[in-house]
């Protein structure tokens, strides 16, 4: 009885909304459909439908994966400043952050699965049934920490919302340790992901200790930028409340993170340029091209420009406080970091190849469609979660309202 | 010395092709020890069957990692593979599972001074090891350097003159170096690749999940991925195979040089050693002080590629 009340209430909430909501949902469904079609083609023909080769053996999928791990981590790390600076009701912030984290994580997992040559053999990874190569393989570690993180991010909001739905008090003494645990865990998913690349001596572009810190710095740019946009959307369509000052505070933090990110980039540039060894080649390929090949050059300079503009927007109080420029800055930074940390990080790791050849890479249409499909699915999940959870959290959707209506 | 076969139209030339085999989720016939695994996998197989997209039979789906198989499972698996290959290539195959011989640690030595760059090893290897002709896979790359230069970034593998060797150049073939401290096996999330006791780095093609982490980890481009169903002409397929070596592979898995495990474990030389017209390729047991490789290491100037990475290759280049 109770449960059907919830389901009916939830479904009713999902199918009702302003026209823009329908447009948005249909758009995402279309993306997802296109992505699934493209993926079926990939399953039938093999990874040959992608642009990847024996030279550049990871590409667009792994690039998106890397970017999204950063989003998932940063969404939760926002809990700290939210608590310290009193952004608004802390539980609301936690819930929205975790909804973002969960959808980003699901997208991460979908991207890795899309990249896998033999998804039919995933069971080889299950401990007990298969062999999870712990402690040696960083990919195995990443699977462990990502799944642990997913569990935490489902459990915490699950508990809080269960209580809210039943109009009971949340037992903070029970849930706080989990919230606290999720913070270092967020750092761990990003660090371990960095270590996947970082640990490979064969790839000098990744094999620099600056990689993990840079990962975190850039995650603190893109994740919170997404959160700023998300908070505004949620605030607009529900009783969820976040203060304007909170959004500006986040923007300020992004500026700091971006400063650190740019500083680390500078340090990297100095080391490579000044020592002028062959380790410079991937960086040179990325920013200037080598032997007349430089497909990534326009992309990385776009990213660089976007990041600098966003940095200035977030640094100057006037532009930070105006929502028009604030949102522009967010979009610029999301695109900038997506380029920098997606293709800009993964592809040059393979160029030049370890024996010196320069083979370029570009994603194929199929690959882009699969990726778009995964984004569609991820954003759909985010939309559904927020559509149901936020009203529960704000008290608009509870057991009594569900049964009353 | 002239040879017209050296065109090395290497890799990523990939055309879309139709899938050939269809999945048939067969019936469970194997009686295994690990029942719970099988029960679970039965359900999973049913789900996979619904998607029906990977050419994968039930037995293939539940197949265990080679190192965990019992003798009986190994026999069943090789029988199944033989039937599969017979159907596909119309020939009877040998799928060997010879174990390493005690007291052997294989190593390779290559006389960089006398290599003429003819690429006979490349093509001999492709034929011996059933490498896909389309998309093209070639375990050996022959790098051409200008005299006086050993910078990998200046090397060329697509050289194509009328005659080799060319004046002013020297050649350095590179293949899997069978590292003693192999980064590729360390990173594999499922232990689908490992170093055998005789020093050969192998892949279980039926266990590999195709994540390609090992390819990113290898500093010598020693690993290749089957981006599509491998194509081997029926009349050229080599039927003398080993489970961990040159048996035909499937799409979306990694493969590599195995020092011709199907040959060397039977006391033969690797194919590349045999086909080299000028005899620059030497192979033998590192643990035997009288073997040719041991003598070369003792008496010649030797070096290994990228020593600074501490991969400790068992592949030595030598010169007088
Ligand atoms: S050369 Fe590459 S594939 Fe071969 S053992 Fe070393 S790391 Fe592994
Ligand atoms: S591609 Fe296969 S062998 Fe290589 S790391 Fe992944 S699972 Fe292991």
Mean pLDDT of chain A: 91
CATH topology description of the domain at 103-320 in chain B: Alpha-Beta Plaits
What kind of assembly state do the chains in view correspond to? heterodimer
Strand content of chain A: under 5%
Total beta-strand segments of chain B: 12
> So what's the overall shape of chain B?
globular
Query: How many strand elements of chain A?
Result: 0
Determine the number of helices of chain A (DSSP H or I, runs of at least 4 residues).
Answer: 16
Detail the poorly predicted runs of chain A. none
Question: What would you say about this model in short?
Answer:
The complex is a heterodimer of chains A (405) and B (320). Chain A has helices spanning 2-15, 19-45, 60-77, 79-84, 90-115, 138-165, 172-198, 211-237, 244-275, 280-287, 297-315, 317-321, 323-341, 343-346, 365-394, 399-404.
What descriptors fit this protein?
heterodimer; A: 405 residues; mainly alpha; 16 helices; 0% strand; globular; B: 320 residues; alpha+beta; Alpha-Beta Plaits; four-stranded mixed β-sheet; two-stranded parallel ribbon; 9 helices; disordered N terminus; binds iron/sulfur cluster
